[in-house]
Amino acid sequence: MLKVGLLGAGRIAGVHATAISGNPGSTLVAISDINTAAAEKIAAQYGAEARSTDAILSDSTIDAVLIATSTDTHSDLIERATAASKAVLCEKPVDLSLARAQACQKAVAATGRPVMIGFNRRFDPNFATLKNAVDAGEIGRPELLSITSFDPAPPPVAYIKVSGGLFRDMMIHDFDMANFIMGAAPKTVTAVGSSIVDPDIGGAGDVDTAVVTLTYADGRIAVIKNSRRAVYGYDQRVELLGSEGLLQAQNMLENTVVKSTTQGVTGAKPTYFFLERYMPAYAAEWAAFVEAVNGGNAVPVTLDDGVAALAMAEAATLSVKTGNPVSLASVLE
Amino acid sequence: MLKVGLLGAGRIAGVHATAISGNPGSTLVAISDINTAAAEKIAAQYGAEARSTDAILSDSTIDAVLIATSTDTHSDLIERATAASKAVLCEKPVDLSLARAQACQKAVAATGRPVMIGFNRRFDPNFATLKNAVDAGEIGRPELLSITSFDPAPPPVAYIKVSGGLFRDMMIHDFDMANFIMGAAPKTVTAVGSSIVDPDIGGAGDVDTAVVTLTYADGRIAVIKNSRRAVYGYDQRVELLGSEGLLQAQNMLENTVVKSTTQGVTGAKPTYFFLERYMPAYAAEWAAFVEAVNGGNAVPVTLDDGVAALAMAEAATLSVKTGNPVSLASVLE
Amino acid sequence: MLKVGLLGAGRIAGVHATAISGNPGSTLVAISDINTAAAEKIAAQYGAEARSTDAILSDSTIDAVLIATSTDTHSDLIERATAASKAVLCEKPVDLSLARAQACQKAVAATGRPVMIGFNRRFDPNFATLKNAVDAGEIGRPELLSITSFDPAPPPVAYIKVSGGLFRDMMIHDFDMANFIMGAAPKTVTAVGSSIVDPDIGGAGDVDTAVVTLTYADGRIAVIKNSRRAVYGYDQRVELLGSEGLLQAQNMLENTVVKSTTQGVTGAKPTYFFLERYMPAYAAEWAAFVEAVNGGNAVPVTLDDGVAALAMAEAATLSVKTGNPVSLASVLE
Amino acid sequence: MLKVGLLGAGRIAGVHATAISGNPGSTLVAISDINTAAAEKIAAQYGAEARSTDAILSDSTIDAVLIATSTDTHSDLIERATAASKAVLCEKPVDLSLARAQACQKAVAATGRPVMIGFNRRFDPNFATLKNAVDAGEIGRPELLSITSFDPAPPPVAYIKVSGGLFRDMMIHDFDMANFIMGAAPKTVTAVGSSIVDPDIGGAGDVDTAVVTLTYADGRIAVIKNSRRAVYGYDQRVELLGSEGLLQAQNMLENTVVKSTTQGVTGAKPTYFFLERYMPAYAAEWAAFVEAVNGGNAVPVTLDDGVAALAMAEAATLSVKTGNPVSLASVLE
């Protein structure tokens, strides 16, 4: 039974608390947050204790921590937790700074402790099914990958300003999805972007609509499309053309009801946002972490994966600025 | 090259004229109608002559006639045309009177000439594909058939009064479809019906909404649903459950465009009515007739098929009146 | 906080235990089963006690019981629990005997306690959405209802023999669904059935494939199709034609992945059986019970609803035997 | 009645001959081809004459010519036909050389004769419906366009060598589609490509898989994906995200039959290739030409459109070579 400390008590921490409690192989022992009331509320709900982060990290009976705090604390907490011999599952991104994330990567390597990065979409039943089909050779050799990832509505501009920008904050999930599906890092990253949804996002130095093209050493190509606004809901699709067919993971819909009238044939919208769409993915992600740690096996998404996605975000950010393709190697140097 | 005379110059005759002209194995020679202007117009369009029906039937150079006149003339014209050694394709139904149709059946049998009944839906690419899959054993042994057949809007009550009623006028297509898919006639026919769409249809002694259940000697079951009104368009679906799976032939849509907004995800309606939906079926029906007659083979839908469907309509009409199941044998006696 | 005793510790009881524990308005206090090991296992998992049924019913601190025992005990337990002032949620069917269920109905009425029958499908998000759309007038006046309900595989013949037959055991859900959607009981019930899936089911005096047609006093019609075997999974669809459109609740699929190859375009199967399909419905059903009982409101599915569905099953059973339509009134006399 | 000469008697010329003959406003008078047997065959089928191109162009009773010859003859024939006062519909592309096409543009402008370029996809019912919905404001302001265009199988390498390359031969249709939907030319063109389908295509100096990103002056973005091989059939989809929704034009399928078995739920493949998919588009294209010319109105797709698409192909070709974005203005200088 994995004894778990939860760092952070915000909305996504609540999702993780449910997953930790619902998993027969783990138990939620303690939770910390600078907002102690929030920590106490989650603790009460799941029969855990609200403690300080220090108290959690120094408790040798706690086997693992789940880091669901703000992004700027991730690298520090990963380092402290692994130094304290905890297994770690940390929300994405590792850090907004590639250099800082790489330093964290080195520090963690020295401890030998497992650190899993919360790229929850790998555990979505639809994307996982697609990946399994690719690995089983069902469409032959992959050639051309397309990822569509639109949020239902843009966040406040105040959030945009501290987010690290669309590539580090939003498309980072899609960079990891490309790495997951393609099983390799790209050679070049070419990005275009604009702030056509909201000029204030442009005023804050960011884009809200972007297309990134990735090329691979063996000739494969991937393209990722992001928009901060799809009024019909969360649009999360993956499509892969291979030598023997096409795989598509389509949206989850709110329900299966279809209405035919003189106005046409109308079905439900996609589920609204990530909590609705990815709830099963969060549970599966945690189950995979517990299974790996309890079994002494490698975690399925590593800190290296987190750094790789961040490097692609860095390259895309640079590509939009310069207007030219950026080689991934140049960013990682 | 099959030389063809067309009897009738109404709307459906125009559809047939296009099919006859467009088929490389047939040529439209002459057309007749009591409305001579209508006959002349079609004749001009396709390089044929407007003649009297007598002139067409007595022209020994004409190989085949297509009968697209009003239902009450079908039996007579079939008998006269076969007596004149023509091959015949006649629009459904053979007759509103089962006894008259059976008499016609005997008369034709004596001539040995081929008579095909225009159950065009057998040649619809979707239903034909479904039938081929059944025959290929793709879903094992058929067990439960469902036919949904809704018109977009009811005809005028004046038409209803002379139509022979919903079972002879509308569901007769579905009776033939059941015979086509199941490859056997049913044992019993159980019908319920009401005039919920338009009470005036009830006032005229007919129903506008009906469900008919068919049982077969080997335990198979079929159910047919008819409504005179589906405001979203022509709803024509067939579904067959078998021991190893399910086959569904779904509606044809006006186009493939899908719109996602805050209101939902909306696609196009089904094609509006039989001309839009079954245009390819009419061409394929004619091609099958030409191929059979030119090749000296049996036509794929026979006068016997026409009589069989009419007997089922008779049984359904009786079942609605009596409120009890009717054995098909009792109707055919 | 509703204190709950769970009677029964079988598979479906486990589902209910999860729902009771997961609901913020209820807590699972005790569980009973003749298989005490099974009761103890569920009790341990959810922090409850394994007790005898008598002990649960006589514990005045327990507010409600959920009856998930075998069908032959339902009526007795409903009567005992309501006599002990408990609110009751009982799995369907109330009883295999209509007379016994009606006696239970009277006994319960004398206590004034709320008894909800577990027609979980009313709480399925898809069917609930369809019902809401009907009630909102989105397709005008309902005219023709179709319910398709196929199990993935037939149960053992030993089960068939004690099940009460397809109409009481399986189609009872669909009878209730018809009552739910149509908001009225039918006037006549006409059933046909056969044992084409497995002759041994026929040997046990039951059918495995059936079509039931319902007529309503106002001219509406409903048709229900049941099969004990759909090899592709649990097929649960509802379709309603109205004066201004059509509503369809389609199947839930295992995932959204679609594969296009030279063999066609293939998507996932429907979820396999009721546990997969209706898990959200069980949680919503319990939530509705808790909300009604805690709020002092009428429960949304009543014992009367359970008796009504059972009467339709009785009528259908009789109709198959006699080969004729059966008026519902004649069964209820 | 428009009197038409058809230049070319290959496969696509046969399609056009059917459209010309089937249109009530035009008649096919003559046809020419260096393969005189082919010309005579089409002439016989449609009651026209086989003549030399010179004879057609010098016949003052012929109002219009349809040019369906090899690409290298297009510019010359357009110039000769307009000089002879014919209205012209010419198959795409105008020329493989942008400079030559621009010279042709000037020559034609001097004659004032209408020249329509055969971008048939604008007349596909699905894409035309999508365009109408955009223009009607159904999804608000367009922001992000995606075009997927995959052929079922690559052409022979011998063809590749003389084709002008994927961008001029295949993606030119998609460049025109982008111009059609967006209503403006892009500012920059960024292309990546590889020969992952067939290395021999790379050996011939071409790519078989490519992604092109277009940016627009107002911040809109478009992305086009091409592959020479989609084994499941012709994949032709357009998707446009706007401020108030998403529009998708999906593939046409061979039929509507769906089969559910233990293997999944399988529907038909997309129609195989352009003749199957775009047959209705060719007829609608010709109808639009006839309507414009007979009515004295501007043709709906102009020589300018042909040059614009060719310039984008030129820019994309250059972008793949240099690895950098290319401004469209730099190509048009």
UniProtKB/TrEMBL annotation, chains A, B, C, D:
Q: What class of enzyme is it?
A: oxidoreductase
One GO MF annotation is: inositol 2-dehydrogenase (NAD+) activity
Arranged from A to Z, the UniProt key words for this protein are: Oxidoreductase
Task: Indicate whether Oxidoreductase appears among the record's keywords.
Answer: yes
**What EC number(s) does the entry state?**
1.1.1.18
Under Gene3D superfamilies, the record lists: Dihydrodipicolinate Reductase, domain 2, NAD(P)-binding Rossmann-like Domain
Describe the location of the GFO/IDH/MocA-like oxidoreductase domain by residue ranges. Answer: 127-247
Keyword check for Oxidoreductase, yes or no.
Answer: yes
Q: Which residues form the Gfo/Idh/MocA-like oxidoreductase N-terminal domain?
A: 2-119
Family membership noted in the UniProt record: Belongs to the Gfo/Idh/MocA family.
What the entry lists under NCBIfam families is as follows: myo_inos_iolG (TIGR04380)
Q: What is this protein called?
A: Inositol 2-dehydrogenase
Per the UniProt entry, what species is this protein from, by scientific name? Shinella curvata
Organism classification, top ranks?
A: Bacteria, Pseudomonadati, Pseudomonadota, Alphaproteobacteria, Hyphomicrobiales
Which gene does this sequence derive from? Answer: iolG
